[in-house]
Amino acid sequence: MLTNYLKIAWKVLLRHPFYTFITLFGISLTLTVLMVLTSFLDHLFGTHYPETRRDRSLYVMQMVQRDSSRTSRNSGPMSFKFLTDYAKSLKTAERVTICTFVNSSNAYVGSQKIKLNTKFTDADFWEVTEFEFLEGKPYNEQHIANGDQVVVITDDFKKQYFGKTTESVIGNDVEIENIHYRVIGVVKGSPITRPFTYADVYYPYTAPKSNYQRSDMRGGYVAILLAKKPSELKTVQEEFQSHIRRIPLPGVQNGFKYTSLEVKSEPYLENFIGTFFDGNAGLKTIFFGVIAFIALMLMGLPAINLVNVNVSRIMERASEIGIRKAFGAPVKTLMWQFIIENIFITFIGGGIALVLTLIIIQLINASGMIAYADLTINFTVFLVSLLVCLVFGLLSGVAPALRMSKLTISEALKS
């Protein structure tokens, strides 16, 4: 039966090329937009290079201090000492890395200035993340203990500073802010959309201007806590919070008197959303509600437009419907036939959208709009795309099928 429905749907598509073009154009355009958006969200929040262990990572990004009336607050990254005392000491975590967010520096090649994004990290940074080393190796605890002036650079900075050479630059010097460093490794860069790992140059935290020796609680450092397996994330969170609860209250930070202190360790998505909504559950609910509404509109409005096209297409077959009803075809059978036909047509449009999406994301990756962008159609994106196709097919197919089911035999035969 299903095979017959699909054969009929194919014949109908070939019967009216103009209707077919309008239908497939609307479907493929809508699904292309949704697939590209899904691919970007997966690029932003999914587990990808070099943060390939996000499924068992917790991110510590800021400390929030509030006064007794909770009308004033002081927030921002923490000091290296604070994170060493309260994060590095975790026993349930496999590893903990402490690093800065992106800083700005300059390098010069002759008279040409190269603007750089730089990051100070500990040695565990290279164990928590999974960077691809094209040359050399990362700095280790020994380099840090010795205070060695070494750096790891990206392949892009290598091209800018040393030119398009195919020779290794390991052991060569780079001068950044009038300080000479020895290149110890070259890595494939991390996308700019991953601020915990993105940079052009990576220094050991003992390098100049890192401010790692600050003794107060606030500073410029963040942390990633790596659990041994995803199921132990809650355990690591609880241990970290038990450490934070040991901090004596009230306290004073740079003249600000605070009575409450909050430092969260969260999965990446929660950490990202929480940055904007400051843990306000109501605002988070509104945010996700708006996202759901936008997604519904993106699918719903084109689906409504296609309903009219599908109604016209189905009503042209009124005589066929009348004859089948006259021979005893149940309304339920006729409805499922047209719904399956519409889903079949939608999946054809989805196939076209998939090809268009692949072309578009390759253009985005190659354009340089997002540094080191690696948008892909992976299993997650493909699965979401299939679900969207199914929903879209149902949205634009159920109403015409219901309209058709209400036709009496006499009305259908007269049409």
TrEMBL record:
Membrane topology, as annotated: Multi-pass membrane protein
Q: What is its main location?
A: membrane
Domain ABC3 transporter permease C-terminal, chain residue ranges per copy: 293-408
Pfam family membership, one: FtsX
Q: Which ranges carry the MacB-like periplasmic core domain?
A: 20-241
The listed locations are: Cell membrane
The record's keywords, sorted A to Z, are: Cell membrane, Membrane, Transmembrane, Transmembrane helix
- Per the record's keyword annotation, is Membrane included, yes or no? yes
Q: Which residues are listed as membrane-spanning?
A: 21-41, 286-307, 343-364, 376-399
Can you tell me which family this protein belongs to? Belongs to the ABC-4 integral membrane protein family.
Protein name as catalogued: ABC transporter permease
